[in-house]
């Protein structure tokens, strides 16, 4: 089993990782980059032509993946509904199946309401957490993870006698922190390679607020106001929105 990381090693998001065997090509995540050459990528870049996106590096040069190529990938698996992990799916050849959880598919569909550019037509095949499924000769087992995006997954992949674990994005301070414990307890302890998110590496002094503390802060803030309260958050951060809704019941 071979691994090719096209993007995501020296930046946050924009993840594209190929896992392949002699018989199977599988892409893990198809993320839109948040940064290129250390500079933020503007949202309007998605309005550019595919040729221009290839030229500036938003689209990595990957043979057999995009809609204008002869497809040679067997599938794409998406870990969660954040654009830096699924944002390039619109360019993937329609004959290549894309595997997502039910929650991820719903979030992507709902997110189209807020887009200024084309929607993401997905040839979707839904997987269920903790239920292994096969793509060619690669066995994939998804694990539910605690993350700000609802229904996020980690993946354990097995093929040609090797095991790869991909954590996806995760946290241990949300409402579903127990999911991280379940993942650690049940994922293979004999994996040949662990690919793990490193967003917080080197940020040990940074304060991390738990979802419970955030909820308490929101409730106190809402209580201190006499009139209407407007709340703004990412469209996919449903659990934080849930915390805001709970504040209503504390009046």
TrEMBL record:
Domain of life: Bacteria
Residue span(s) of domain Metallo-beta-lactamase: 11-203
InterPro entries: Metallo-B-lactamas (IPR001279), RibonucZ/Hydroxyglut_hydro (IPR036866)
PANTHER family: RIBONUCLEASE J
Protein's recorded name: Beta-lactamase-like
Organism annotation: Syntrophomonas zehnderi OL-4
């Amino acid at each position: 089993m071979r691994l090719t990381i096209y993007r995501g090693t020296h930046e946050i998001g924009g993840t594209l990782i190929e896992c392949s065997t002699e018989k199977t090509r599988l892409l893990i995540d198809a993320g839109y980059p948040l940064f290129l050459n250390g500079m933020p990528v503007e949202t309007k870049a998605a309005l550019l032509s595919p040729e221009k996106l290839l030229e500036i590096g938003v689209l990595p040069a990957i043979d057999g993946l995009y809609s204008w190529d002869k497809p040679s990938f067997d599938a794409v698996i998406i870990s969660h509904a954040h654009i830096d992990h699924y944002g390039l799916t619109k360019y993937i050849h329609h004959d290549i199946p894309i595997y997502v959880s039910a929650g991820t598919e719903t979030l992507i569909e709902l997110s189209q309401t807020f887009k200024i550019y084309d929607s993401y037509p997905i040839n979707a095949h839904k997987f269920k957490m903790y239920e292994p499924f096969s793509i060619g000769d690669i066995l994939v087992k998804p694990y539910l993870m605690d993350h700000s995006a609802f229904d996020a997954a980690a993946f354990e992949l097995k093929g040609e006698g090797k095991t790869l674990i991909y954590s996806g994005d995760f946290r241990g301070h949300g409402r579903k922190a127990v999911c991280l414990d379940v993942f650690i307890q049940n994922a293979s302890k004999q994996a040949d390679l662990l690919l793990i998110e490193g967003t917080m590496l080197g940020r040990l002094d940074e304060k991390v607020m738990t979802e419970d503390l955030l909820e308490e802060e929101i409730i106190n803030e809402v209580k201190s106001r006499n009139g209407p309260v407007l709340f703004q958050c990412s469209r996919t951060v449903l659990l934080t929105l849930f915390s805001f809704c709970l504040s209503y019941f504390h009046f």
